[in-house]
Amino acid sequence: MRIAVAGGTGAVGSQVVNALRANGHDAVVLSRSTGVDLLTGEGLDAALDGADAVIDTANVSTLSADAAIRFFQAATGNLLAAAARAGVAHAVLLSIVGIDRMPHDYYAGKIAQERVVEEADVPWTILRATQFHEFAAQLYDRARLGPLHVAPRARVQPIAAHEVGAHLASLAAGAPRGRTPDLAGPREERLDEMVKAFARRSGRRGWIPSVNLPGAQMKGMRAGFALPGDDAVIGSQTFADWLDERVGRPASDGRTDRLSEQR
Fold first, then answer.
1. How confident is the model at residue 249 (pLDDT cuts 50, 70, 90)?
2. CA of 46: how far to CAs of 42, 54, 59, 176, 192, in Å?
């Protein structure tokens, strides 16, 4: 099958592309680096010519609800309009577990994006996944009070990005399923402990205090609203296993590999 991947150079999108090609599919990467601009629609018609399915993993870095809504409505709207013109038979969207319980900030944009998919003329599947293991590295870099790194408190059940990518690839190769069961990692973790573990394993030193970040979205995550339900599909790689694989084992094992990819 010829399957296009929006955001195909990102942390999950690149994993989708790898999984598709490993399974013998023709994966088409939709990104600015390949001449496709989701926000303007430039290059979409040519890129989707002959495509059987499209997977949307495109993302935007913002905490603003308005900015996220504008981005996802425009980008996913343009993608699905072009997919309909090209006769694409299946659109798959990657979304996030719990956004309906925390419809705030960035998550408001994801809810708007799901509505775009549900109202489009292309048959669809929506997969909600929990946060990725890479989320710990992302927060270590971004969560700061001045020069001080902080570790936000939250309840999460993180999943390996490569497992999300493989699952999306499998869904795209099948028939549209509407809302499919959520995908989550094998066990619940404390987000602040994940951030600290990543920092220690990466050779970082210094105090990293656990904090309650303000905002309704973070309050919801502390309450467990980002955790999956009982019917979720459960992955296999734990956060500890991911640290061993991607960052390296503790210094006592003689390895201090540095994380090379972030969400």
1. low
2. 9, 14, 22, 23, 45
> Which pLDDT belongs to residue 250?
57
Q: Hey, what are 15's tokens?
A: 């994993």
What average pLDDT does the structure give for the chain? 92
Q: At what angle do helices 135-142 and 191-201 cross, to 10 degrees?
A: 80
Alpha helices in 23-179 (DSSP H): 44-47, 65-86, 105-118, 135-142, 161-172
> φ, ψ for residue 91 (rounded to 5)?
-115, 130
CA 3 to chain CA centroid, Å, is 18
* Structure tokens given for 154: 């939250």
**Rounded to an integer, what distance in angstroms lies between the CA atom of residue 158 and that of residue 262?**
14
CB 120 within 8 A of CB 244: no
The pair of three-digit structure tokens given for residue 98, joined into one six-digit string: 């719990």
Set out the domains of the chain in order of their start, with CATH numbers.
2-130+160-184 (3.40.50.720)
Q: Could you tell me what percent of the chain has a pLDDT over 70?
A: 94
pLDDT at 63: 87
What are the two backbone dihedrals, phi and then psi, of residue 127, each rounded to the nearest 5 degrees? -110, 120
Average pLDDT over residues 229-241: 96
Give alpha helix (H) positions in the chain.
13-22, 44-47, 65-86, 105-118, 135-142, 161-172, 191-201, 216-222, 239-242
Q: What does the alpha-carbon distance between residue 168 and residue 14 come to, in Å, rounded to a whole number?
A: 12
Count of C-beta atoms within a 10 Å radius of residue 3: 26
